[in-house]
Amino acid sequence: MRHLTGGLVLALFVAACKTTTPVVQQAAPPKPVILTLGTKAFTTDDFFQSFTKNQLSADSAQRTDVKDYFDLYTNLKLKVVAAEAEGRDTTEAFREEMATYRKQLAQSYLIDKVLVESLAAEAYQRMREEVNASHILIAAPEDAAPADTLAAYQKAVALQKRVQAGEDFAALARENSQDATTADNGGSLGYFTTFSVVYPLETVIYNTAAGQVSGPVRTRSGYHLVRVNDRRPSRGKIRVAHILVRLSPGADESGQKAAKDRIDAAYARLQQGEPFETVCREVSDDLTSKGNGGILPLFETGRQVLSFEDAAFGLSQPGQLSQPVRTNYGWHIIKLIERKGLEPYETLAPTLRQRVMTDTRAEVLRQATIQQLRKQYSVNENKDVLNLAFAKADSSLLRGQWRYTTPLDEALRNKPIVNIADMPYTVDTFFEYVRQRQQPARNPAMAAVTPVSTPVAGSPQVVMRRLLDRFIGDQLIATEEGNLDKKSPEFRSLMSEIRDGVLLSQVMEQHVWERSMTDSTGQQRYYEQNKARYQFPERAAATVIIAPNDELLKQAQTLLARNAPYQLKRATPDLAYSRNQTALNADLRERLFDVLVVMTRNPDYLVEVAGSHDPTERDSVSAGRVRAVVSYLQQNGVPLNRIMEKDYQGEQRPGLADPAAQRKVSFQYFSNAKADVANVLSSAGAPVEIVEGVFAKGANAYVDSVNPWKAGTTVLRPSGKAVAVTISRVEPPRPKTFAEARGAVINDYQAQLEKQWLAQLRQQYPVNVNEEEVRKLVK
């Protein structure tokens, strides 16, 4: 009664002091509760939001009605309540995991999606055109002192005026540009498309007409003058294969001649009809591509050296070969695989959105976000403290080695350098940020470019200013991230789902999944109690050959009937030896590595290692060569049962009249895998498929077509194909053994454990359902 009286007196006092009727703030009515588990309540809104999301995301065939989903929801929440009761949501590991998820999820809420789409669309429009441009770089680091920055700008302006007065741009570039990779060739950047240079430079280039010179444009490297030489429609992307004969830049005349002779010999073999893949494996010095026939990833203009690129895009028909082409890597023969035009925006949009968020456009997106946040949150710098703090910077900051003495002097210690959203951030906090984020000064030239002249030194105070701006931006983003729960119901809901999912995974791992996997006694007991559930129906052990015509079908049947390893068309270059040599030198080991790669990547392969010697060598020489090769393969993981040895000794090997050619070890691959037989027969372009297994009814349409099932071969001709179904045996229905049923048993045992655990939870946390709320939703 005292509380009521006091409240009434206070209300009367307030009313007496005002001339207008006070506005009474009414508390929001409590949200209706649909479910209570023990003492924990869940609202109708929470359930309906979960149900709606499930309906929108689930497969239409698997959607449930409200009542069925309510049972799923109840079971989920029971497990989460159990996890909370076990204190899983209070552990450091849980908090760290949730912080990681939160930061990842927040990214999509802290970025301007409209701007991302705009940049992606802009990039696509630019991709439709390739630009040839030249530039002059006047180097100036991003942290240069204002006077040095101004001097660089004025020099760029002066050069612009000289160009406008008629002086040759290329000559000025050779004399003045500090981009060492392009200065000697008049500043030429060649043809390129979007994402090839930093975004500010790209923008100026694409906004400058052909034949025109831009004004100075600032990048982290300095100031650029850009001349656009030409524009052309996009040539799209291209995929090629190549054979490379490597040539050192410092090779003497004899080395250059040897490389040219090798590439000419390879080109002659191709002209005579030898497969490109074979010549590539035997000749190419590109170890990363020779194993797959020299095929390179798709590329666009500006991604390869100019001479290689021009030769590749000069090919018009798939399969067409270039003549030998010289680059700074050596000599190439290029084969066109495919050309692809620019794909529609709808196809490229997801990739473009990702690229604009990760290339130099990312800074544009960040600054746009920070500008928006500055409108929402106050930012007030303490100028006096800021000036004192900046005075602590010295040249060590430019080397990324700056340290500050603690404790700070009285003028700076614990003094706020900036207030963000009414939160003070002290000098101590900022200095620690600087210590962690400082880096040595960047090279003032473009990426992968070394400046010609000594770069202008940076200013420690400018570095401090840049880092303070970065610090302010980071704190604004962190502030917004911390407020996302209040500002975005969607974010709050997703974080709640993630939280429940992490807790659910933890308790299910302990109470169900791990136990079902490790409890072998429980698995066996469950199997014995439910044997009738684990049965094999009648099944046929069969091999199915599917070929496009009778001829290939017959070839496949003949190969399979031999019941021996199948010889493959694949081969590896021979190892050539000096007279009486049996040991493996460095060159032979490098070539033998190709065999090791093939055997490692193809576990069904066998390899025949065949050695021989010339008539002047002892018979033991060829055997020694074979033993050395086999020993190498064994030591590197190829078991002896996958190696077949063959010693020609003094026999004349077919096609080898030259005695020196007899001094060799050669390789031939075989396989026990029927899939490799299919690959051999499919190499001519007509696909052959071989499938084998034990099939129940409904597992394979071709096996089902044989009626009745009995041992033997049946030839079918569905839809113009030739199909042979060979049934070796018919297995009658029988129970599965525990080993055969173990996977299904574990799944079923998990379901039983989960059911038992949920029953315990329902006793521990009584389930109270508000049926009236459920009925409202069902309607």
TrEMBL record:
Which stretches make up the PpiC domain? 128-230, 235-338
**Gene Ontology terms, MF aspect:** peptidyl-prolyl cis-trans isomerase activity
Q: Does the keyword Isomerase apply?
A: yes
Keyword Isomerase listed: yes
Alphabetically ordered keywords of this record: Isomerase, Rotamase
Under the heading InterPro entries, the entry gives: OmpA-like_sf, PPIase_dom_sf, PPIase_PpiC, PPIase_PpiC_CS, PrsA_foldase
Q: Which protein is depicted?
A: Peptidylprolyl isomerase
